[in-house]
Amino acid sequence: MQKLTNVILTLGFISLLGACASGPRYGGGASYVDPKSIEQTTNEFSMSDIGMVAEEMAVKMLQSPVIAQSKDIVRIQVTDVKNLTSEYINTATITNKIKNKLVNSGRVEFAGSAGQNQAAVDALRMQNQSGLYDSKTAAQMGKMQGAKYRLEGSLTSMTQRGDVKSISYNFNLSLIDIQRNVQVWGDDKELRKVSGR
Description:
Elements: H1 2-21, H2 47-63, H3 65-68, E1 74-78, E2 82-83, H4 91-104, E3 108-111, H5 114-129, E4 149-161, E5 164-177, E6 182-196
Parallel strand pairs: 1-3, 1-4, 2-4
Antiparallel strand pairs: 4-5, 5-6
């Protein structure tokens, strides 16, 4: 009888260990999905929305006369896109995706922001004034190039409640000629998401 009890306890213990070793109980194992697939799990702004907005806005910018008809590479400085929604949305992610698409087109380049310019100045000083670098290979002072245009924008939302909850998002970008301080291009992308209350 004692042997039977020990066998049962041992089998129970082994079963318990096996159950614990099978991994987390939060939906099983993780798997990869196509990052370009559209996720519709919530009515809040999502990574799918970021990708969709960035793709469309980059295409619209490249088709604008300012860029499409320019004989030279267009140099742009980006300011922070303002998030005017009630959600936490990292608008820098959208801006970076747009920048990457524009730069990779070969028709646009981006000048550094104020913070990036300070880092560039620090690097130039290090190369030219520290005595650590060969003067033949050091980057030269006074060779930075200014941007002709400034890109700015905002993300807004409006929520309507009734039988369903509807959230409308508007992502707006404007390209400003820095010297003349006039808007030379602008467009927006609207998204509307509906869910049950």
